[in-house]
Amino acid sequence: MCGIIGIVGDEPVADRLIDGLKRMEYRGYDSAGICTISNGRLVRRRAEGKLANLVDVVSQDPAGGNIGIAHTRWATHGAPTTTNAHPHATEHVALVHNGIIENFKPLRKELLDDGRRLESETDSEVVAHLVSREIENGASPQDAVKTVLPRLRGAFALAIAFRDHPDLLIGARLGSPLVVGYGEGETFLGSDALALAPLTQEIAYLEEGDWAVITCDGATIYDSEHVEVDRSISTSGASAASVEKGNYRHYMQKEIFEQPTVVAQTLSSYLRLSDNSIAMPQFDIDLSAVGRITIVACGTSFYAAMVAKYWFEQFARVPVDVDVASEFRYREPVLEEGGLALFISQSGETADTLAALRHCKVNGQIIGAVVNVPTSSMAREADLLLPTHAGPEIGVASTKAFACQLAVLAALAAHLAVKKGRMSREEEQEVVAHLLEAPAALNAALDHDDDIAAMAHLIAPARDVLYLGRGPDFPLALEGALKLKEISYIHAEGYASGEMKHGPIALIDEHVPVIVIAPSGPLFEKTVSNMQEVQARGGKIVLISDAEGLEEAGDGCMATIEMPKVHPLIAPLVYAVPVQLLAYHTACVKGTDVDQPRNLAKSVTVE
Ligand code: G6P
Questions:
Q1: What's the gap in Å between 373 CA and the centre of ligand 1?
Q2: What is the reported pLDDT for 242?
Q3: Atom 5 in ligand 1: which residue has the minimum CA distance?
Q4: I need a surface site. Which of 108, 238, 390, 548 has the fewest CB within 10 A?
Q5: Cα 210 to ligand 1 centroid, rounded to whole Å
């Protein structure tokens, strides 16, 4: 949600700022803007809509200067117009912001009462004015920021440029991520290491409450008490190439096809092949004492949590609560001392999930984080860091991160079962063997891409689509519906197969395709009965199953998608592929913007 970047350099920055925004466009794409300092003036260019519009504006009206800040926006306060686009500026100061200033209303009133003119409806503009007022009263940039930061409540990552100080930028973070990048005679600020990947790999991650003054020579970092601190500089693994589309039409398509590789990559850090055992990262916590697990996540990561509940309960016989993060804290959950709280997040920065993590931390839980960005806030605040190794995920609709989350969670569930004496050595070896079958099975699932593309023409005209699944296939039904909604804008609902008769069956007619996810196995017969209830009412079925399932129940379906025959443990990973591809190809038929669907953002860093 919103990406920010700043450069203090020794050569023109406008193009590089825009290139940085391109790498962060997945964070939001409602509007974009840059502000440089040139010849003693703040030079601001802004445009609503996609970044391409800003590129046009800047090509017609270039912004010179060796220092500047830039922003790509996901709107929270105020419509996505040019006036509301960042940077916000006064005569003296320009500022970009990611996050929400919760107390902006009283601050805005104070500024208006003070006779200042604010032009936007945003919460961010008040910060530009607060800092500017200090500067106008004679404060240095450092003192202005020192005075203003304690007055801000909410979450922010800021980058601020000062007209009369063309040699420095100030960045600050609380609740939203911000990194400092170190180059040769140049220094950078960015929302993440990926944004800075072509500029530098040398990155320092600011801690909560930190602020930093950056110049060509480096950065001076202060903590929330304004005490100068050292933040270690690490070499980021983010490569410029890892955010290219390659030969694929969309990032989402590329990421779907990467799944066999990234799942194998992820499994290789959780499985020891020498003796077919589970090998968790080293940590000093005794999991055998865990008596209850709480899993919290949002969006697709939440559906991974729902699948994992089946595994934890089945393998380790530990009761599991699963919550969406935005609801979790507000239901006053009962958290027994020493319970394990797991947070699942691709970005590791989702505000609701992070807030839930902190709530669990102060309530005595062991904090586990299954995250794809190993330097993210959740990764850094967890007791047990369980990284997925999916690589950067750019498409707004999550795909490969989901598969890798499932791989890690299956390994963790088996590990917990071993620790609790609920899984024998032989059973552990079997689990490892099944997990190792996943990459090949994912490849086999991807082989059906062409068939699924052809089938998308049947789904694209629909106004509503229903997804049904039972057991661990129920969360997949929810995930399938979410994917379709997100990128094709077709209304879709996921339902537990057996629950359909309690309501959604009223929707069934020949215009509502029903996607049934049903691998052959113990639950198959029951799901087929539910499917027949749909058929009896004229409903059109797309059955996703293996050869055995299709042989038994494929007749009379509008279409079928054949999956390889796989062990139930890895079925959720494998069956995610056809639901992803069906949503992807349907969106392509409809001509929507697959990688940047309307109103969404990849990383939601506001509550
Ligand atoms: C946004 C994204 C989803 C993602 C969700 C949770 O809504 O569009 O694709 O599943 O956030 O994100 P996280 O980074 O916490 O997994």
A1: 13
A2: 65
A3: 299
A4: 548
A5: 26
Q: Is pLDDT at 606 greater than 70 in this prediction?
A: no
pLDDT of residue 241 exceeding 70: no
Is ligand 1 within 6 A of the CB of residue 581? no
pLDDT over threshold 90, residue 252: yes
Is residue 601 included in any domain, yes or no?
no
Pocket test for ligand 1, best of 302, 398, 408, 594 (most atoms within 8 A of CB): 398
By the 10 Å C-beta count (0-12 exposed, 13-18 middle, 19+ buried), 126 is classed as buried
Looking up residue 479, the CATH number of its domain turns out to be: 3.40.50.10490
| Nearest ligand 1 atom to alpha carbon 347 | 14
431 and 451, same domain (yes or no): no
What are the pLDDT digits (tens) for 24-46?
887 777 899 999 999 999 999 99
If asked whether residues 362 and 383 sit together in one domain, one would say yes
Q: Note whether 210 and 301 are same-domain residues.
A: no
261 and 391 both lie in a single domain? yes
**Rounded alpha-carbon distances, angstroms, from residue 42 to 39, 92, 118, 196, 437:** 9, 8, 17, 23, 58
Q: Which of 404, 436, 468 is the last residue of a domain?
A: 436
What is the residue range of 278's domain? 247-436
Q: Which long-range contacts (CB under 8 A, 24 or more apart) does 553-558 make?
A: 553/518, 553/524, 553/528, 558/458, 558/513
Query: Is 397 close to ligand 1, i.e. is its CB under 6 Å away?
Result: yes
The answer to whether the CB of 445 falls within 8 A of the CB of 462 is no
Domain match, 144 and 225 both: yes
**Catalytic site includes residue 2:** yes
Q: Are residues 41 and 10 in the same domain?
A: yes
Mutate to test the pocket of ligand 1, among 74, 394, 404, 603 (most ligand atoms within 8 A of CB): 603
Does any ligand 1 atom lie closer than 6 A to the CB of residue 304? no
In the chain, the number of structural domains is 3
Q: Is the CB of 372 under 6 A from ligand 1?
A: no
Asked if residue 379 has pLDDT above 90, the reply is yes
To the nearest 10 degrees (0 to 180), the angle between helices 571-590 and 259-268 is 150
